[in-house]
Design brief:
By secondary structure, the chain is an all-alpha fold. It has a domain at 12-221: Leucine-rich Repeat Variant (Alpha Horseshoe), CATH 1.25.10. Helices cover 69% and strands 0% of the residues. The N and C termini lie far apart (118 Å).
């Protein structure tokens, strides 16, 4: 009768049937109970053809769900256990049922352990997933439950059979298993305390059997563990696994092309700046007009005319569909292509032919989002566990087994980067940047930020530096610098500036060109790299004297605009002084003294604005010593230049008398009266005389001290003074 879907109009038989199947009146299990349970399961899953048909209400019979699980364990036939277990699975979404199950340790262990059983795995995973959603603390706090879930995931790998070899069901069960672990980690308020060491180790060991489609789940779990657990614990357990580091490097290389959106030039700009296209605006206006029209119709009174009554009698007519059977306004407008989001974002043209294209696009968007997350997670995890030297490590040095640069990590990185070279990653990255410039794709801000963070990490951590510090890789990075330095994100600009400094990218023309063109936008970086270019060997930079003169013009502008910080000013003074002492490039000092004397005067005057700095004064004196003091000639066109130098001579004499005095002597001797007259007018000779008197007095005092300590009485006075 049950198999033939006999319509039971009353509840008497059904209640009796449930009492036989699930009642507590029997101490031992019988076949009659199994037959009654099968009947209840069939009735509960049959579609009612009549509203008066009763349904099975198991809650009226099963009062204690934990006791029900205990009785289920006594069922001898595994196949018959399924019929009983199905009932519990359907009711496991109710909080009362979950409270009964997690409140009894044996019941919870029975459910979790049966994840390893083929015949009950499909039902146990649903119950465990519901527990992880609402009562996850019972799973993560009890050591061993998460390990069992991980073991079940491992057993259901590709090739495993589950329910007549259904591959789709195997994938679904596997995904639910990972979701259970993810939910437990997400809902935990203290992962460090609740996650046992064995469970954490088994989660990490899944790295060698996780499928590609499950990587987003797995990466999310690893990120929760890294964020919630002590960093030394994470470094010891997670980063000591070579396969984990290989997964990070592989995901970073494979997903570097994920964060792009194909679109035409117009939609490129709308996506980049958060705008909408004209087509989307037109469709939005049509949608708003349709909404107003439908609201007006719905608010109008309906008259029960004869025609309307006839329309109600026609099956399938709009008037006869009833509540819940009429398509919503959104769905109707989406079918017509009038809703502003009905067409896929970034899709060329509008989709007016139904929802198939929209579903396909949503799947593409979902995959792209997963790939972008994988790229983000891989870079974040790779840099998180291998970064050394932060404040935490300085205050609390990690133990030897948790050292981020220990030999086993170095070996694992060597193996990973040998399979997935950094050069390949950089080439793909350069292609994506070029496509972004050609407005074929859009790179997200997160993508650019994470990419820059990886490049910065490689230059700040010694174990990564050798993977980037090759001529081929540096050439690619130098080509990418103009793109990253102009990205409108201060963090990206700051990190890429440090990459330029650490990597010595001043040796590449592409980097210097953008800094010369946009030095006002990046004053500190321009000052740092251009001064470093001045002092670097010519064999590396190929710098010409004419280019060096152009650098000095930029320095003058930065000084006049007061665009440099104290650190940048000091870097400029030291770098310029070193370059002039080295005369690098060769002939620069002579060019400044004879042909570019106006530029030299402007540079010195700009530096004199910061004369309170000893480094700046020393730089000015050295500049005059290496240029005027060595290459000055009595030429008429240099007269104005000499007068400008004499105006700033007094503070330079006071600061560096020993170095500046030979400069004045050369100008006076070479220039004759043309220079001596302005010196006398400015009383520079009197200042020199006073400084010479002070120098002579100092020499005499030193001589008296030496003579006093050389005689016998002087030694006695010294010993007496030192004797306590």
């Amino acid at each position: 009768m049950v198999k033939q879907a006999f319509p039971f109009k009353g509840l008497v038989f059904l209640e009796y049937l449930m009492e036989v199947a699930y009642g507590d009146h029997r101490e031992e299990h019988t076949t009659l109970q199994d037959m009654a349970a099968v009947c209840c399961a069939i009735i509960s899953t049959q579609n009612a053809t009549d509203a008066s048909t009763p349904t099975v209400n198991v809650a009226s019979v099963v009062k204690d769900n934990a006791a029900f699980v205990h009785s289920l364990s006594r069922v001898p036939d595994p196949k018959m256990q399924i019929w009983h277990y199905r009932l519990l699975t359907g009711w496991s979404r109710r909080p009362k049922v979950l409270d009964d199950l997690v409140g009894d340790a044996e019941s919870l262990k029975f459910i979790v352990d049966h994840l390893l059983e083929t015949h009950l795995c499909r039902y146990s995973v649903v119950i465990v997933h519901n527990i992880s959603m609402l009562r996850s603390g019972a799973l993560i706090s009890q050591e061993g439950h998460l390990s069992t879930i991980c073991e079940a995931y491992r057993q259901l790998g590709p090739g495993a059979t589950l329910h007549r070899g259904d591959e789709d069901q195997r994938r679904l069960v596997r995904r639910l298993l990972l979701a259970c672990v993810r939910n437990c980690l997400w809902n935990s308020s203290d992962i460090q305390k609740e996650l046992a060491e064995s469970d954490m180790g088994n989660i990490i060991l899944l790295v060698d059997c996780v499928e590609e489609t499950d990587l987003p789940f797995f990466m999310a779990m690893i990120m929760y563990i890294s964020e919630g657990c002590n960093i030394n614990r994470v470094r010891q357990v997670m980063y000591g696994n070579p396969k984990m580091l290989e997964l990070f490097v592989r995901s970073m290389n494979q997903q570097v092309t994920a964060c792009v959106v194909n679109m035409d030039a117009q939609k490129f700009e709308s996506s980049l700046y958060g705008l909408i296209t004209e087509e989307e605006a037109r469709r939005a206006e049509q949608y708003e007009a349709l909404v107003e029209h439908q609201d007006a119709i719905s608010s109008a009174p309906k008259k029960q005319t004869e025609a309307y009554k006839k329309l109600l009698a026609i099956p399938g007519s709009p008037a006869a569909r009833g509540l819940g059977k009429t398509a919503s306004l959104y769905q109707r407008s989406r079918r017509k292509g009038l809703h502003p989001v009905s067409a896929a974002k970034g899709e060329i043209g509008s989709s007016l032919g139904g929802g198939g294209g929209g579903r396909k696009f949503s799947e593409v968007e979902e995959r792209r989002g997963q790939q972008e997350f994988l790229y983000f997670a891989a870079v974040e995890l790779l840099t998180f566990g291998t970064f050394a030297g932060d404040d935490h490590d300085k205050n609390y040095p990690p133990p030897e087994e948790a050292e981020p640069h220990r030999p086993e990590i170095v070996e694992a990185l060597d193996a990973a980067f040998s399979k997935f070279p950094v050069q390949t990653y950089l080439k793909i990255l350069a292609e994506q940047v070029q496509m972004h410039k050609n407005m074929k794709v859009v790179l997200s801000d997160m993508f650019v930020h994470v990419t820059t963070k990886f490049l910065w990490h490689c230059w700040t951590q010694p174990i990564f530096q050798r993977y980037l510090d090759t001529p081929a890789n540096l050439q690619i990075i130098a080509q990418l610098i103009p793109f990253f330095i102009s990205w409108p994100n201060p963090d990206v600009q700051s990190m890429i500036a440090e990459v330029c400094l650490y990597g010595g990218l001043h040796r590449f023309t592409s980097v210097c060109d953008i800094l010369i063109a946009e030095y006002r936008e990046y004053p500190e970086l321009s000052c740092a790299l251009l001064t470093r270019c001045l002092i670097s060997p010519i064999e590396e930079t190929g710098l010409k004297p004419k280019q060096a003169v152009g650098f000095l013009r930029i320095f003058v502008c930065l000084l006049q605009e007061r665009a440099l910080s104290h650190t940048g000013l000091k870097r400029l003074a030291v770098g310029l002084e070193t370059a002039l002492v080295m005369d690098n490039p060769k002939g620069l000092c002579g060019i400044l003294a004879q042909r570019e004397h106006e530029l030299l005067a402007e540079l010195l005057e700009a530096l004199s604005q910061y004369s309170e700095s000893a480094s700046v004064k020393q730089c000015m004196v050295v500049a005059l010593t290496r240029t005027v003091g060595k290459h000055y000639k009595a030429l008429p066109e240099l007269d104005d230049f000499i007068l400008r130098i004499l105006d700033m001579s007094v503070p330079l004499l006071d600061a560096e008398f020993t170095l500046y005095m030979p400069v004045l002597y050369r100008m006076a001797s070479e220039g004759g009266r043309r220079v001596q007259g302005p010196m006398l007018t400015r009383h520079i000779h009197l200042r020199v005389a006073r400084l010479l008197e002070q120098a002579v007095a100092g020499l005499e005092a030193d001589q008296h001290k030496i003579e006093g300590y050389n005689d016998e009485d002087g030694w006695r006075r010294l010993i007496f003074a030192l004797d306590p």
